[in-house]
Amino acid sequence: MKRYSIHHNDQAIEFDIVHRPAVTRRIHLEISQSGDLQVVAPRRMSRRSIRKALQSRSGSVVGFLQRARSQQQDLTEYHYTSGEEHLFMGQRYPLEIRLRERRGARVELENGRIRLELSHPDQKQVSRHLQDWYRAQAGKYFAERLAAFCRAAPWAADKEVSMRLRRMKRTWGSCSSKGIITFNTQLVKAPPECIDYVVAHEVCHLEEHNHGKAFYALQARLYPGWKEAKSRLRAQGHIFLHQ
Asked: Fewer Cβ in 10 A, N or C end of the chain?
C-alpha cells in the first residue's frame, strides 16, 4: 500500500488511504493496530484533495494521532485464555474456560467469573462464543432499559419501538426516521449509567431528530445525569469498543 504524507511544523505525518463502500461523503481518521494513521475516504475523492484537506487541518491531525496512540496504550491484547479479564457492565471479570464433553457451548456469569464451557477451547472458538454471549446479554438488558425509558417518555409511551443490535466501530446507537433504534453490542461492556445515557439519547430522537435545543431539553428531562455519563463514555469508550 502506497503511503502519503503531509507536514506540520516541519514534522512529516505519513498516512495510508483506505476506501470503503459505506464512506461516500467525507473523510475520517483511524489508527491501525501498529499505530499508523489511516485516512478513510470516498472513492470519488482524489489523493490530491485528501492531502489538501488534511494539510489544512494538520494541527488537528497531530492531535488525533496523539490521543489515539495514547488510548491504544490502554487497550488489552486478548488471548482468550483462563484468568484473562473481560469487561461486562463496567466491571472486569476473569474468564474461566472449562472443557465440555458434549458439543456446543455454555456461557454464564457466575461467582464473579465469566464461565465458558465448550468442547474445542481454541482461541477462535472462545472469542466467538464470548461475543455471542455479549450479544445475548445486550439484547436482554437493552430491551429492558429501552422499555423503561419509553414508559417514562410521554412522546414514546404509546409507541411500539423496534430495537436492533449491531456491532459498530464508532457509534453507540442510532434512531432511524422510521423509529427503529439500533444499539452497538459493545455498549454492554460499559457501566449501566453509560448504557442508560445512550438509550435515553435515542429515545429522545423519537421526538426530536436533530441535536437542537429542544432535543437537549428532552434529554435533560429524561436522563438528568446525561452529561456525566457522556463524559465517561467519551473518556473510556475506546476500551469498551475494543474486542
From this structure: N
List, for residues 128-175, the tens digit of each pLDDT value.
999 999 999 999 999 999 999 999 999 999 888 999 999 988 899 999
Domain 85-241 annotated CATH 3.40.50.880:
no
- Residues 77 and 51: their CA atoms lie apart, in Å, by 33
CA distance 153 to 147: 10
Strands 113-118 and 3-8, bridge-based pairing: unpaired
**Closest by CA position to 185, among listed 210, 153, 163, 161:** 163
Read off the pTM.
0.76
pLDDT of residue 44: 84
Nearest of 143, 156, 147 to residue 205 by alpha carbon: 156
Q: Confidence band (pLDDT; 50, 70, 90) for 74?
A: low
How many Cα neighbours within 13 Å face the side chain of 226? Answer: 18
Distance in angstroms (rounded) separating the CA atoms of residues 59 and 109: 45
**Strand 85-88 to 91-99 pairing:** antiparallel
Residue limits of CATH 3.30.2010.10 in the chain: 85-241
